[in-house]
Amino acid sequence: MRDGFIRAAALTPKVRVADAKYNGAQIREMITKAAEEGIKVLVFPELCITGYTCGDLFSQKLLLDEAKKQLLHIAKHTTGLSLIAFVGLPIVFRGKLYNVAAAVSGGEVLGVVPKKNIPNYNEFYEKRYFTEGMEEPEDLELAEGVTVPIGTNLLFTCAQVPDLKIAAEICEDLWVPAPPSIRHALAGATVIANLSASDEITGKAGYRRDLVCGQSGRLYCGYIYASAGLGESTQDVVYAAHNMIAENGSILAESKRFTNEAAVTDLDLERVMQDRIQKTTFSFTDEYYEEIPFDLEVQETELVRTFDESPFVPKNMADRNERCDEILNIQAYGLVKRLEHTNAKTAVIGISGGLDSTLALLVTVRAFDILGLPREGIQAITMPGFGTTDRTYDNAVSLIRDLGASFREISIRDAVTGHFKDIGHDIDNHDVTYENSQARERTQILMDVANQCGGMVIGTGDLSELALGWATYNGDHMSMYGVNGSIPKTLVRHLIRYYADTCEDETLSAVLYDVLDTPVSPELLPPKEGQISQVTEDIVGPYELHDFFLYQVLRFGFSPKKILRLAKIAFDGEYDDETILKWLKTFYRRFFSQQFKRSCLPDGPKVGSVAVSPRGDLRMPSDASSRLWLEELERL
Fold first, then answer.
1. Of the residues 48, 54, 171, 324, which is catalytic?
2. Cα separation values, 613 from 97, 462, 484, 549, 595, Å
3. Residue 285: pLDDT above 90?
4. Can 132 be counted among the known catalytic residues?
């Protein structure tokens, strides 16, 4: 329960239709097991105490009385258990029958939420039995001396975890144009429990999944969907126990259908609240809701949820290919507009043979092809310096020629040597002046060539470098349009690999694969025995770690302590805890100290949810203190 995590489950008992005693026993047994597994929020299917498919048996007093009796037994069973459970049953109130979700915790029934939207089409015939639920809570007497609120406007709020506020809706409520969960979320609910009995027909599972996923995304909430399954009557339809748990637009856990399998995961309430805070259009309603408190024992649990070590890169190959093509188009069309606006027929780009300049060249080629401009208008310039190796030089030359751009070589050695004489710098002193002089000389060349040919300098620096400040101010930091500015290094690799996999040019593919295999380096220090001597990741740390940190910091605003915890899970077996902590400290130090470089970035297209443009996504003071963040890490 640390860091905003709460374990939740969508559970489906194998019911016997109309045997409330048997079903009640099954539910109690599942509650016991869930408690042992540290599950705090349990959601069972619609009408699970009786079975959804009772038909006209819902008019039998004996069944209704037994269902209520079993509800009280189930509630009593939760005494001493640290959890809240939602179970479904039919309830009579003021001479009408309601299909309800009952919340039980701490040995009591906390409240009863009636179904608002009663389906009466196709295979559904619920209006024959049930009445539409009321919104304003009223008093329902369950037994002598036991009165609970009944109404849709109920919020079940955990005293120990203030961000855990649960509301319920039932099956069809989700499928209508304006689900009750919209009002629930605007009233403060962070988790929606949906007790459902959705039968299976061809193609319905995908649509159902999209509904659950989409609703959790629109409402920035956890959504627990538990559906009826095996055991229900198959007289006319079949139920498959399609259980799902979603959070902020992503399915976190999903059962295998036709198995009555549970869906279990850890919801992240901090992430839910952070998205609501960031999205200023998420406004709260003043509609009346009755808040009902319940208690949970705060326990330390080991997370069952996994975390992607590469949050910027899709795992699925088909998704990866689609995403990569989309990103390349966003980059290219951003450049297309800028070229059209400036009436530039020439683009100037420095090619080093490394990842970033390779991607920038591929994007520029795509933009020129879109505009119908000859690729010869791309002035691709290699600028060998003191650290250039044969491998990167050869790759740069091959890449330019294979893509049909105009090749030009301008060595910076003499110019930088003369500059060292001008400023009185010892050429054998390989300090930051030695390195940055080369980067700024290259940028000067590109800018001046662009003036010569009426062209535009295309920036190559990526998001990861900008986050860490691994760029020379007014050197490679500057351009006339930066196409890679919102592409993290881990994604740069996948974009180039995608291009190599799909370009259908064996020669070009071979060059791209070798670029991918080359260590990342600015090549500003002399080679050792012909090999790259300056490996970026040895200096600032692994980019896969920094990209993970960057995503958690900017996308969710998580604390350093929480990010460290997630990184240990994501990179288990790849990096030890000490290494992760070391580079996380480096990330925070560099991220804060280097903001001044990001405050004056050139224009460039945003491609994802995380970006650092000072005009769009990151309005951060250049002189903000990192003290709070680093002090928290020092305490770990």
1. 171
2. 57, 12, 12, 18, 11
3. no
4. no
pLDDT digits (tens, 9 = 90+) for 313-359: 988 888 889 999 999 999 999 999 999 999 999 999 999 999 999 99
Burial 276-311, CB ≥16 within 10 A → b, else e: beeeeeeeeeeeebeebebebeeeeeebebebebbb
Q: Is 48 helix (H, G, I), strand (E, B) or coil?
A: coil
Instruction: Sheet containing 406-409: give its strands across.
Output: 406-409, 378-382, 347-350, 456-459, 481-482
User: Which listed residue (40, 46, 165, 544) is catalytic?
Assistant: 46
Which position has the token pair 């609703």? 215
User: 3-state SS of 457-513?
Assistant: EEECCCHHHHHHCCCCCCCCCCCCEECCCCCCHHHHHHHHHHHHHHCCCHHHHHHHH
Apex 586 CA angle, 582 and 589, nearest 5: 140
Average pLDDT, the chain: 96
d(CA 489, CA 543): 7
Asked whether 550 and 612 are in contact (CB, 8 A), the reply is: no
Domain annotation for the chain: domains and CATH numbers? 2-294 (3.60.110.10), 317-634 (3.40.50.620)
**One-letter amino acid identity for 613?**
S
Q: What's the pLDDT score for residue 32? A: 98
Distance CA 388, CA 390 (A): 7
Model confidence over 72-81: pLDDT tens digits? 999 999 999 9
Give me the pLDDT at residue 426, please: 97
CB 194 within 8 A of CB 113: no
Q: 109 - beta bridge partners?
A: 104
Q: By CB neighbour count within 10 A (0-12 exposed, 13-18 middle, 19+ buried), where does 18 fall?
A: buried
In the structure encoding, which two tokens stand for residue 527, read together?
Answer: 């080679």
The residues with which 347 forms a beta bridge, in sequence order, are 378, 456
Q: Give the model's pLDDT for residue 336.
A: 98
Instruction: Tell me the C-alpha distance between 478 and 350, whole Å.
Output: 12
Active-site position among 115, 116, 165, 597:
115
Helix, strand, coil in percent for the chain, rounding step 5: 40, 20, 40
Q: Would you call 46 a catalytic residue per the annotation?
A: yes
Does 115 qualify as catalytic in the annotation? yes
Residue 470 CA to residue 465 CA, distance in Å, equals: 5
d(CA 566, CA 570): 6
Lowest mean pLDDT among 35-44, 60-69, 311-320, 485-494: 311-320
pLDDT band at 116 (very low <50, low <70, confident <90, very high): very high
> In the predicted model, is pLDDT for residue 1 greater than 80?
no
